[in-house]
Amino acid sequence: MRRFILTGTPGAGKTSILMGLERLGHQVVREAATDVVARRQARGEDEPWTRASFIDDIVAEQVQRQAAAGTPTARVQVFDRSPVCTHALARHLGLPVPPALSAELERITAENVYDRRVFFIRNLGFCEPTAARRISFQDALEFEKVHERSYHELGYELIDVPADHVDRRIATVHQTISRLTA
């Protein structure tokens, strides 16, 4: 099983690319943080990312999704974000890296859970806010830099996917995965 990660700036189009890859037959795993935010907001927490426990909840969701994602016939899985992204999020928010996240980072490294080549989806020149994404474009660019640092520090190689029409970005990622898994 080869597990690839899509990462990058909030609002860069990762979800659109992921859906396109799914249409092409790839098994995909959706982002955990957005669902954690939605659940907490449904319980009345307006800004759940301000609490340190937010990072623990994301890690728990990521671990659960990664464990549940395996199907016997799938050769490739594509993940919208990973625990390395959660590490970048903690840094960006000024929150401590909790023990559960440190342990998960150690586990995914020791077990080679994800391919060391990561698709870095570049920003589109804007960032549209949503209920879960309340970040300015300028802050999103800073967050992009934090992501790059986290992945590099943890030994990953970034495959740059520049801003372009979504269909071309999907084709780029699909063709690269096909080449890497041939």
UniProtKB/TrEMBL annotation:
Matching entries from InterPro entries are given as:
NadR/Ttd14_AAA_dom, P-loop_NTPase
Q: Which Pfam families match?
A: AAA_28
Which intervals hold domain NadR/Ttd14 AAA? Answer: 3-169
Task: Kindly give the Gene3D superfamilies that the UniProt entry links to this protein.
Answer: P-loop containing nucleotide triphosphate hydrolases
Q: What is this protein called?
A: AAA family ATPase
Q: Per the UniProt entry, what species is this protein from, by scientific name?
A: Actinomadura yumaensis
